[in-house]
């Protein structure tokens, strides 16, 4: 099997401690991505300092893409990262989701033309998350000690369980693998989504409209979410209306998206 070149895009905003754990988890991958791009939605100096330090210490090809904090504008910085990516396969990861050491290789194995991949996430409790050590802490042990939930989604089983579908359930941008050419065809993330919520569902549904089915995965491409206080949901109602418009029109390309950004030369 020929594996695609993976550009790993990690979205982050002002959670430097969590991001440090995620980057440590990426550094411990059995197979490294060809590059790591941080899509930073306006974090402060502490995040910048930690990224600078880790870029020198960890074996990562790391680029830090940042724009000014003007509210939740994750879609914009993600599109910038996608345009700057050099790989033919994009894996999206959130900066509070620590990847299993086989995460990148699993996404490579699952990648298939005409499909996109939806990985799952388990959850580490907010109280325990600061103590979790990537590469050392074991999820099953955490679960047995009531420090984690989502057992079925947090363990790498002897074989993957794969559902092939185009359903709404479980579309989350924190663990997603998509061919770069497909993201270009749908014009990336819709930048009209401002504030938390449903921008990933919109992306997934436009991939469906493009004719791309989903591989919905258990037992592979695993991440452990470091639980924290919820982000404000003040824009969720407006974003819900935008998503309903996408569903009603079978829209493929968004109006404000990837083409607003300059591709890498």
What would a concise description of this structure say?
The protein has 9 helices and 12 strands.
Give a structural overview:
The protein is built from nine helices and twelve strands. It has a single domain, classed as Spore Coat Polysaccharide Biosynthesis Protein SpsA, Chain A (Alpha-Beta Complex), CATH 3.90.550. It has an eight-stranded mixed sheet, sandwiched between helices. A four-stranded mixed sheet has the order 5-12-7-8. It has helices at residues 16-27, 45-57, 74-84, 103-110, 139-144, 151-154, 180-185, 199-210, 236-249; strands at residues 6-12, 35-40, 62-66, 89-94, 97-99, 115-118, 121-124, 148-149, 161-165, 175-179, 213-218, 223-226. Helices cover 32% and strands 22% of the residues. α1 runs parallel beside α2 and α8 (199-210) packs parallel to α9 (236-249). The chain is of the alpha/beta class.
Strand content: 15-25%
pLDDT under 50 segments (min length 5)?
none
* Distance, first to last CA: 29 Å
Radius of gyration: 17 Å
Global mean pLDDT: 93
Q: What do we call the CATH homologous superfamily?
A: Spore Coat Polysaccharide Biosynthesis Protein SpsA, Chain A
In what order do the strands lie side by side in the largest sheet?
3-2-1-4-10-6-11-9
If you consult CATH, what is the topology? Answer: Spore Coat Polysaccharide Biosynthesis Protein SpsA, Chain A
The CATH architecture can be given as Alpha-Beta Complex
- Class from helix and strand fractions: alpha/beta
How many separate helices? 9
- What's the CATH first level? Alpha Beta
Helix and strand element order: EHEHEHEEHEEHEHEEHHEEH
How many separate structural domains?
A: 1
Per DSSP E runs of 2 or more residues, the count of β-strands stands at: 12
Q: Looking at the structure, what is the overall shape? A: globular
Oligomer: single chain
Helix content: 25-40%
Summarize the main sheet: 8 strands, mixed
């Amino acid at each position: 099997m020929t594996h695609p070149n993976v550009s790993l895009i990690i979205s982050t905003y002002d959670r430097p401690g969590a991001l440090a754990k995620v980057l440590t988890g990426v550094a411990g991958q059995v197979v490294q991505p060809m590059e790591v791009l941080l899509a930073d939605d306006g974090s402060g100096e502490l995040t910048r300092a930690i990224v600078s330090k880790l870029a020198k210490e960890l074996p990562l090809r790391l680029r830090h893409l940042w724009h000014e904090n003007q509210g939740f504008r994750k879609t914009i910085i993600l599109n910038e990262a996608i345009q700057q990516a050099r790989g033919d396969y994009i894996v999206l990861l959130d900066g509070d989701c620590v990847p299993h050491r086989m995460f990148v290789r699993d996404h490579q194995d699952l990648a298939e033309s005409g499909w996109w991949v939806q990985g799952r996430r388990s959850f580490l409790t907010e109280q325990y998350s600061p103590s979790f050590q990537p590469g050392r802490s074991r999820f099953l042990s955490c679960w047995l000690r009531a420090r984690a939930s989502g057992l079925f989604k947090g363990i790498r089983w002897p074989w993957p369980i794969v559902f092939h579908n185009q359903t709404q359930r479980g579309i989350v941008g924190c663990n997603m693998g998509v061919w770069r050419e497909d993201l270009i065809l749908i014009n990336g993330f819709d930048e009209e989504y401002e504030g938390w919520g449903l921008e990933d569902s919109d992306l997934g549904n436009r991939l469906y409209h493009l004719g791309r089915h989903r591989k919905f995965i258990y037992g592979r491409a695993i991440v452990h979410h470091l639980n924290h206080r919820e982000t404000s949901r003040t824009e969720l109602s407006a974003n819900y209306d935008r998503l309903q418009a996408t569903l009603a029109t079978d829209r493929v390309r968004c109006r404000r998206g990837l083409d607003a950004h300059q591709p890498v030369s």
